[in-house]
Design a protein that fits this description.
By secondary structure, the protein is α+β, with helices and mostly antiparallel strands. Helix content is 55%, strand content 17%. It is built from nine helices and seven strands. The strands form two sheets. Strands 2-4-5-7-6 form a five-stranded mixed sheet. Strands 1-3 form a two-stranded antiparallel ribbon.
Length: 275
Amino acid sequence: MAMVIVGVASWWLAGLAMQPIYQSYRQIQQFTADAAHELRTPLAATGATVESVLMVPQLDETEVRETLQTIQRQNLRLTTLVADLLLLARLDRQPIPMRHECCLDEIISDLVEEFAAMAIAAHVNLTSSIQVHQPLNIIGNSEQLYRLISNLIINAIQYTPKEGKITVVLDRSDHYAVIQVQDTGIGIPQTELGRIFDRFYRVNSDRSRSTGGSGLGLAIAQAIVQAHHGNLNVQSELGKGSTFTILLPFDTTTFEGVRSIYRFKWLSRRPRKFK
């Protein structure tokens, strides 16, 4: 009896210990399948275009130019996807070098100016709200911080209806620089909030494809925030909009000790100010 009990207990404990490995294996399988699917789509479109052209005996200059433009668009999509996958792999494999002080005021101002034309074309109002009275600097990688905030701004523009509003807010607390990207967009269902940072996951697959998204933007944003020892959270209400909040620590050496759910909730309850 004792041997049977020990055997059953050992089998149960072994299965329990293997669960994280099984889960990791399933995630790798899913990621591989998703990556293969995303890579296959532009390749198949390019192949079909070339095949259709080869079947035509003669093409005039206009048709040749249109064909080359189609191939160029698919090639750009493929190049962007491969670059995103390589970036995620690099972030997983090694930490981002924290090169120098980054001025968050300048980064946000530059990005709002850079995406002004895109916002105007989408008929949405894009503004910034700087709540600090002096330059706010952190030690980090400026290129990746640009990528982080730009991914959130692009998402907000794509999913905010006409005449909507997007505000990029910069504030600070005792230990964090706080960046918020607030929009009056379509919002995210509460049931989907736990998965939006998964790689290749789309809340609305059809709409994401129409905007050219691969489902990697928020995964990249999450990876960059984690590489800076920060935190990325989202609050959203369907039909009313979303607020993505980034917390970046001033002192990364003590960040793990001072981060807490209590402080994050306190920050999320602070009254928002707009200029």
